[in-house]
Amino acid sequence: MSQEVVDPGRRTWIGIAAGAGAVGAVATAVPFVSSFAPSERAKAAGAAVEVDISTLQPGEMATVEWRGKPVWILRRTPEQLTGLKKVEANLADPNSQRKPDELTPEYARNEHRSIKPELLVAVGICSHLGCSPTAKLQAGAQPSLPEDWQGGFFCPCHGSTFDLAGRVYKNVPAPDNLEIPPHMYLSDSKLLIGEDKKA
Ligand code: FES
What we know:
Layout: E1 13-14, E2 23-25, H1 40-45, E3 49-52, E4 61-66, E5 69-75, H2 78-86, H3 100-103, E6 119-123, E7 134-136, E8 152-155, E9 160-163, E10 183-185, E11 190-193
Parallel strand pairs: 1-4, 2-3
Antiparallel strand pairs: 3-11, 4-5, 5-6, 7-8, 8-9, 10-11
């Protein structure tokens, strides 16, 4: 399995939200699959989405839909976690201090912006004008990306870049980090997006 599971034009939308308690299955990338059809009832209700992350391997990313928005789930490798430190000086808000109540729940206000260090859960919508950035998970020099790229996300609309914690780079059009949605783990393999309190 290659490290970069999602790439432009091959974004895999997965997840099944057929009502309360529905389980969204995490799948690895299936080229050219781009359909996603949550039930109208679930969409209208903004229902929380339960996702099985047991098959998500290090370096792989899945996308599920929650409230009509793409939510990325990335299981970062140890190297990718190390890379978060390396880019801090290039970031506009490395400590998630801007709009914390809106963008970063308290449990994600840490160096990896997540509950579990390896698992990033972020809304894949650019804070500039709302495009969905493209995953550029592979580290190394690439066109349109900053030098010493450690992996991250690139918004093709106006060139904003984000690191693998969804933190925005300095001097790009996007003003803020990507949103971390409310979420919680129901077990080691079950993630619930949209709720962060136990019933
Ligand atoms: S919408 Fe992402 S850079 Fe403009």
